[in-house]
Amino acid sequence: MSMGAALSSSRGVHTSRRTHDVPQPSAAGTSAAAAQGPAGQSMDAQEVAKFEAMASEWWDPDGPNGALHTMNPLRTQFARDAICLAHGREARTVQPLRDLSVLDVGCGGGLFSEALARLGADVTGVDTSATAISVAATHAQADPAVASRTHYQNATAEQLQQQGAHFDAVVASEVIEHVSNVPEFCASLVALTRPGGSIVVSTINRTNRSYAVAIVGAEQIMGLLPKGTHQWERFITPEELQEHIERAGAERIGDSGMVMNPFTGHWTFSADKAVNYIMSFRKPAEQQRNP
Ligand SMILES: C[S@@+](CC[C@H](N)C(=O)[O-])C[C@H]1O[C@@H](n2cnc3c(N)ncnc32)[C@H](O)[C@@H]1O
Ligand SMILES: [Mg+2]
């Protein structure tokens, strides 16, 4: 089956009430063969194949996605604060994102989606990897509260956009460096955000240090990631990311570097954005028309 077929033939895995407006629920596919063929413009078949190959290890904190596990609390805190700021919410409450719809683009096995659902958000996770979507949907079942607030689809952002979906917030964490068409991908993130809503993107900067840390250090020396996970040329600078998103119609709210101690695996916010960073944006509210 082609990726296009896999994406368009998916079925709903959750039927729980949605607070966002996705016209056609769809679902988890399972075929690794789904990595071929065209679909949304941002999809790169080679990148999809890479993630299909490691998909069964999403929830292993000692596996190839270990750095995403250790990064999760920090990026969740950043997203919580950015979304609360855009929506006039108090961040330090039990469920600050209660009933807000959040789209997690390139959700993988659902690590970030589940963390956001625990903050009360109604999360839709989409990914080009059918296996990752299947893993995410299965893992969510372990916690009924998470299961009721997560909805997974084997799809691209562009496909949701074509369906006319809109969300209060859109997040894409560690995905943009794997897409084939960065401007189109950014335009979709903004188009999928309701006016007044927020966008959070985390990724890796393109610097000499990111080559040393993310490619040589993490892949070749420490083995934290499988070799070939990243291509340095595809990394994107904060300035480029900001330009693409602003061109699509949202404005930057804030950003931060995120630095991992490679020996403890502990992540902290930092002014240093030379390697990992996270950035938030707000789509302006619609202007009132004069009568
Ligand atoms: C490094 S993983 C990050 C997963 C998740 N966001 C996290 O941080 O836990 C990148 C994910 O993006 C997905 N992906 C790559 N290109 C994509 C695209 N164009 N649209 C949607 N998902 C994509 C991959 O299948 C993979 O699951
Ligand atoms: Mg990456």
TrEMBL record:
Topology class, membrane: Peripheral membrane protein
Chief location of this protein within or outside the cell: mitochondrion
Subunit (UniProt): Component of a multi-subunit COQ enzyme complex.
EC number of the protein: 2.1.1.64, 2.1.1.-, 2.1.1.114
Keyword NAD applies: no
Domain of life the protein comes from: Eukaryota
Biochemical pathway: Cofactor biosynthesis; ubiquinone biosynthesis
Family designation: Belongs to the class I-like SAM-binding methyltransferase superfamily. UbiG/COQ3 family.
Keywords of the record: Magnesium, Membrane, Metal-binding, Methyltransferase, Mitochondrion, Mitochondrion inner membrane, S-adenosyl-L-methionine, Transferase, Ubiquinone biosynthesis
Entry binding sites for S-adenosyl-L-methionine: R75, G106, D127, S173
Region feature Disordered, mapped onto this chain: 1-46
Protein name per Swiss-Prot or TrEMBL: Ubiquinone biosynthesis O-methyltransferase, mitochondrial
